[in-house]
Amino acid sequence: MSATVAVDSHASVEPSPRIRIGPATAARHGMILASRNIRYLVRTPSSLIDTVIQPVLFLLVFVFLFGGAIAGDWQSYLQTLVPGLMVQITMYASIGTGMALNTDISKGVFDRFRSLPIARSAPLVGAVLGDVLRYVVALTVLLLLAFALGFRIQTDPLSALLACALVVVFGLTLCWMSVIIGMVATGPQAVPGIAMAVILPLTFGSNIFAAPETMPGWLEAWVGINPVTYFVDAVRGLMLGGPTLVPVLISLGAVAGIQIVLMPLALRAYLRRVR
Amino acid sequence: MNTCIRAEGLVKRYGANTALDGVSLGIPRGSIQGVLGPNGAGKTTTVRILATLLRPDEGTVLVDGHDALRDPVSVRGIIGLTGQYASVDEELTGMENLELVGRLLDLSGRQARVRARELVERFELGDAGDRPVKTYSGGMRRRIDLAASLVGRPRVLYLDEPTTGLDPHSRNRLWSIVHGLSDEGTTILLTTQYLEEADQLADRVTVIDQGRVVAEGAPKELKQRVGSQTLHVRPVDPADVRRTEEILTELLGGVRPGVDSERGLLSAPVQDPVLLSALVRRLHDAAISTDELGLGLPSLDDVFLTLTGQKAGKTEPTAAEKGSST
Ligand SMILES: Nc1ncnc2c1ncn2[C@@H]1O[C@H](COP(=O)(O)OP(=O)(O)O)[C@@H](O)[C@H]1O
Ligand SMILES: [Mg+2]
């Protein structure tokens, strides 16, 4: 340090070695901020309740209210619905990333982080990792309740685990969308509204709640091109048996496609705010 | 003299609006530098550029030998920033906020806890340290925010309007904290809208208005130019403003008073209060009646009126001035 202290006339300044932050340090900073977001989740009852109540509510309402009407009896509806709900609640939970980032920006917490010598990526990594925990909590609650109601995995535990992993990967992909929304929204309250405008057509316009064959032609066509449909097919196949290879491949293709399009956009929007 | 912060020719534009129009600063190591200016002068923009949160369109910034534009991480390693608005997590407790910053600065969990406790005690937050920040008063928020910027023991500290909105008691408390930090050798830049605050704290003051430096000097020098008191006089009949100005100029020994032609108000820095009675006599002789006449402490408006000959934020640069500033 003392070597570069003489800064009197700007002409004589030797540039001191530029400090860069390596990936290991960046990862550590990301983890520290993730643990903050997790603490936040545990601390703030409303956000925890959101995460827990959503799956419970969707499961109970659809199984008992509509189950009989849609599938003849609620027990068989439960079987087809649970894999679909796994995908749906993960999509809802992904909104949290954008909310967290936008809250930090509008509350000035972001400026605090930016004035510290930490990796630029750390707040983003923290928000995303914090969200993974939300997915896991929501999925666990959903599956526990489903098992209590009589849902059974008809394949093997490994396939079921793969199904859960696929859902989490899907959620992580959707984080990019959430990041973009979080960067453009004027305030945290605006985030869910914008996100829902994207998520609702993707979830209800899919095979999560009803068989596409029962829908009018235009809607069936939409369901057919909606990537969510293939995720649901893949998760159903992995948990209940049936064809898995094709839907899993299409799902992974969709993940790759979404990543390629949304990730650069999200990173650009993010870096514009954290430079 | 050993310069710690050197900014040259900072320009920042927002569309057609020029927030900074060539601001330069040189701040000696270990000193307290005041940046004085009215709302919208460019204080926050300047601080954010010096703190690497904002890139200027033109100009250079060196902080303790590090180029803020090329090597922001090094600069972030030695600065602390307390922004105009608190930047702590409202949901976390005061302690948790400080610990989080400590962990991000690579302290161990235990070290971060010890450092956080130390700062909470030092800033007299005591038990409040374990309450969520959203329950804090304005003064407490300011202190926890300041504490958060001190976790890493920065050599350079930026304070953006640290006392705006505080009651006198909290303000005095903050002043003594700033003095204490300066005694420990921290180089401090603080912005303010109050000449009195700059006078209390700063070794040197830079006055900015409309993104440009309009005056620079020790607070004492500025105060001398502004006067220890300010005389205000407003003739009832606006047609008398000219004659009043002449009388006043004569009494002031050639110094022309500032004229706010909008309000028909003249004001002038005054060292000797006896001038007031002389003025009353002269105005009486000249049959000029006034509806405002008196002495008061100089307000920021007076400072600007005296230093720029214009009201704060109303400067219309002439072509010549524009030419000379580039
Ligand atoms: N993000 C921004 N977008 C557009 N204009 C801005 C922005 N930030 C500041 N300004 C403008 O720049 C000028 C200086 O602002 P600022 O530095 O905040 O002044 P101060 O802190 O002295 O009150 C003002 O005219 C303000 O409106
Ligand atoms: Mg400001």
From TrEMBL, chain A:
Record keywords: Antibiotic resistance, Cell membrane, Membrane, Transmembrane, Transmembrane helix, Transport
Subcellular location: Cell membrane; Membrane
Pfam families (UniProt xref): ABC2_membrane
Domain of life according to the entry: Bacteria
PROSITE patterns for the chain: ABC_TM2
Family listed: Belongs to the ABC-2 integral membrane protein family.
Protein name: Transport permease protein
Organism taxonomic ancestry: Bacteria, Bacillati, Actinomycetota, Actinomycetes, Streptosporangiales
From TrEMBL, chain B:
Record domain ABC transporter: where: 5-235
Superkingdom as given in the UniProt entry: Bacteria
Keywords, alphabetical: Antibiotic resistance, ATP-binding, Cell membrane, Membrane, Nucleotide-binding, Translocase, Transport
InterPro entries linked to this entry: AAA+_ATPase (IPR003593), ABC_transporter-like_ATP-bd (IPR003439), ABC_transporter-like_CS (IPR017871), ABC_transporter_ATP-binding (IPR050763), DrrA (IPR005894), P-loop_NTPase (IPR027417)
Record-linked SMART domains: AAA
Signal peptide start and end residues: none
One MF term in the entry's GO annotations: ATP binding
SUPFAM superfamilies: P-loop containing nucleoside triphosphate hydrolases (SSF52540)
Principal localisation: membrane
Location in or out of the cell: Cell membrane
Membrane topology summary: Peripheral membrane protein
PANTHER family assigned to the protein according to its UniProt record, in alphabetical order: ABC TRANSPORTER ATP-BINDING PROTEIN, DOXORUBICIN RESISTANCE ATP-BINDING PROTEIN DRRA
Family from the record: Belongs to the ABC transporter superfamily. Drug exporter-1 (DrugE1) (TC 3.A.1.105) family.
Protein name from the UniProt record: Oleandomycin transport system ATP-binding protein
Record lineage: Bacteria, Bacillati, Actinomycetota, Actinomycetes, Streptosporangiales
